[in-house]
């Protein structure tokens, strides 16, 4: 039988926005899911959003033939910088297809393997920093892991050194990126009228975008004048042709995609490493188990590419972290045609906005059981992981618009986390710390501070 999609009571003009936690929308959305169940609709600033909160519904709309990615809200704001680059392209923009076909080979596991040494270069800077500051130094892991992620993607994509470890504050490019993305998030929650009055804020946001575009354009032009022999992503984009049309990417599309990799490829990875740090310190038994695996495989040597396939527990820990704390907490799709969800139960119009709430639905008790909210990497070991109901775990999105950087992120995070845990014993500065969240375009732990002591150092 057909049901109405429940809607919490709305206020005139502003819809449900008053009910939402503006600092931490995922929290508000999770509470509404507890109250209303598998599906509800809310109205935010005149836009009607339908939230899907279970594995069954997420699986149903993970179907490229019937549902297409929607670029709405903060993602639409990011478009000001990255335009029709891969991440923010609308479904029908021709440069998406060309860039997709041209870049897929550059992001596959084999190609990423060649980036191992660049990744190690940046990882070593973090290890040296923590070692030299010593066991009493208070570390903000999100801060240093963001340095790692941003410097790594800049080096691997365009052989550009941001050198974030050599400055006290963020270097100008990193600061522009952080400020820009934060403002994109806030802009998407501001009423239009308020936005129109904030000319200073808007000017800064525009200047940050222009600054980053200028840097990427300069790097592109310099590369054209001085070719280098290296398989970075910039060279791939400069010299490969789309196998289908024989076309190359126009310069402005190359710039937009360079910026895309920096946007999509740093906060998500650094957030994942920060959450993983939290969960491991919080669960000493898991930490011991993982360090034992790492010690056995590495035998005191630096991580090599071939070691990564020999650490199943490391994979399980990364998977479980991404289940409980998917750093890209939701995604949005639109039905191509009018359709019904849940065997005819809910009617949704073509083009309506369906939010797949990854943060909520990856904790669906129907899939994970009563301990769905708990951190238990054992359930993510290969055999069990492969036997899960379809799309139970989807931190990298789905289908043609799924994450192109997944093998890159996996290799980077495995290398960095295994290297850290091989070398250091980590602890909370505040032993009673419990996870709190902060949200911008992605989600990260809030007020998490740790110490890192060399493992062979006597306490
Ligand atoms: Mn990534 C798309 C999550 C790392 C580049 N990424 C997506 C999507 C999710 C996602 C979810 C789909 C978004 C949507 O449907 O609207 N990405 C992640 C996570 C990590 C990550 C959780 C790390 C952990 N991503 C990376 C890295 C890069 C990258 C690293 C680049 C080097 N991601 C992309 C690009 C897209 C994307 C590009 C857009 C792909 C497309 O639409 O064609």
Automatic annotation (TrEMBL):
It comes from the Eukaryota. Heme binds at residue 403. It comes from Lentinula raphanica. This is Fatty acid hydroxylase. The chain holds residues 3 to 461 of 1063 of the full protein. In the N-terminal section; belongs to the cytochrome P450 family.
